[in-house]
Amino acid sequence: MNALVAQLRHRLVVSCQAYPGEPMRDPDTMRRVALAAADGGAAGIRAQGLADIAAIRDAVDLPLIGLWKDGDDDVFITPTLDHALAVARAGAHVVALDGTSRPRPDGRTLAETVAAVHERTGALVMADCATLDEGIAAAEAGADVVGTTLAGYTSYTRKGPGPDLDLVARLAREIDVPVVAEGRIHTPAQAAQALRAGAWAVVVGTAITHPTTITGWFASAMADAR
């Protein structure tokens, strides 16, 4: 077991991301959000974009999962090997990339990409998957961690209101690498349920670091009450 991955066992990883065009879409802002998450007890940070990754790596002494969202194709989370290498070189300890069965834009297989990241940078790889079969295949391809990040976010999976805890449980039973629960975890109770389902760690983003969405939840509930 890698020491960095062991450090995340049964702990919270906070995803510090803002969407393009939003007021918080700024590397220094995300650095400050990451510092606040660390103060609150986060054991790791997940960040998007090379500038954000570099800024957070310099400021926060926690395991850093990095990714680079790029392109309009189905595969846009660290879609190519070049993206993955850049993420590692920006300072990510773990490179998160699309771990689905969909073709990668550079034509490489997932296994080829994972091996190259390991060999050229020494960084670990987190495969963001959508299904049980994809998680099994990602583990076989050499991924160090498998996440449920894309469950409900592909054309062939259904998006529920909360996290896909069934997928978490099935992956935890079927593969030998740590399973990270991620996606639509909106409450502390859901995070705890994910651990009980077998998650090695839990990633929470929107419910902690996206005030636009959180404000919308409250505004919508109040509008319904009116």
List keywords for this structure.
226 residues; alpha/beta; TIM Barrel; 8-stranded parallel barrel; 10 helices; 43% helix; globular; EC 5.1.3.9; carbohydrate metabolism
Descriptive report:
It is an enzyme of class 5 (isomerase). The longest helix is centred in the last third of the chain and has 15 residues, at 211-225. The chain starts with a helix and ends with a helix. Helix 6 (132-140) links the parallel strand 5 (124-128) and strand 6. Helix 4 (81-90) runs parallel beside helix 5 (110-121). An eight-stranded parallel β-barrel has the order 1-2-3-4-5-6-7-8, surrounded by seven helices. It has helices at residues 3-7, 27-39, 50-59, 81-90, 110-121, 132-140, 165-174, 188-196, 206-209, 211-225; strands spanning 11-16, 44-48, 64-67, 94-98, 124-128, 145-147, 179-182, 201-204. The model has no long low-confidence stretch (mean pLDDT 97). With 226 residues, the protein is α/β, with parallel strands linked by helices.
